[in-house]
Write a structure and sequence with these properties.
Elements lengths: L16 H25 L1 E5 L13 E6 L5 E2 L6 E2 L10 E5 L7 E8 L4 E5 L2 E4 L2 E2 L23 E5 L4 E5 L9 H4 L2 E2 L3 E13 L4 E2 L6 E2 L2
Antiparallel strand pairs: 1-2, 2-13, 3-4, 5-6, 5-13, 6-11, 7-8, 7-10, 8-9, 11-12, 13-14, 13-15
Length: about 220
């Protein structure tokens, strides 16, 4: 019986299985590297677990954080490159909780380096001027004495260099710089800029009106 194995025509290239495997492997590696670069230096997704930023951000909101605007943080060293600008008063930032850097917190910038911050009877003053944040809410009419808690009356404190004073918009229910101090530049992860998903766990429904909304 004749052997049916045929030889390739003269001049025709023979597929190299080893080369194809190498190409697939390299493609996967580059895809992983690109994903790591995007997650590390460009954008990252976060979920809101608590009500400290109500009503700006609700429990169950999913948002994207711009990690590029404040500069890309290089791994293992305290250095940022390609910075667009420094954090500004009013920005909503995600950062590593200074008391436990394995946790991420999200608050609004109230004080930048050099600012003097104080609170009197639920009102916040920046450099002696009343800080008016249209997004802040108060859900507890009681005023806590300064001796009991820094929630409603505190300071004045001066924000150190390379540090920021952070507060939640839900002023009466936010564990923030009033209690644990300042956030260092090295702990900043990025600026929250858009809500891409929102789930209400109580009613077991999607908050359609919040999807795709810019964060202010």
């Amino acid at each position: 019986m004749a052997d049916k194995t045929t030889n390739p025509a003269p001049g025709k290239a023979v597929p190299n299985k080893k080369s194809q495997l190498r190409e697939y492997t390299e493609s996967i590696i580059w895809a992983l590297v690109l994903a790591l670069i995007i997650r590390t230096g460009v954008v990252q997704a976060f979920k809101i677990p608590s009500g400290s930023m109500e009503n700006t951000l609700l429990v169950g909101d999913h948002l994207l954080v711009n990690k590029f605007v404040y500069g890309i943080k290089l791994p293992f060293i305290d250095t940022r490159i390609l910075k667009v600008r420094d954090p500004q008063r009013g920005d909503i930032m995600v950062f590593e909780y200074p008391m436990n850097r394995s946790q991420d917190f999200i608050k609004r910038v109230v004080g930048v380096p050099g600012d003097e911050i104080s609170g009197r009877n639920k009102e916040v003053y920046v450099n002696g001027v009343l800080y008016q944040n249209p997004h802040e809410v108060h859900k507890d009419w009681r005023v806590e004495p300064s001796g009991n808690s820094p929630r409603d009356t505190f300071g004045p404190v001066k924000v150190p260099e390379n540090s920021y004073f952070m507060m939640g918009d839900n002023r009466d229910n936010s564990y923030d710089s009033r209690f644990w101090g300042f956030v260092k530049t090295s702990d900043i992860k990025g600026k929250a800029f858009i809500k891409y998903w929102s789930w209400d766990n109580e009613s077991w429904s999607v908050r359609w009106d919040r999807l795709g909304r810019w964060i202010e």
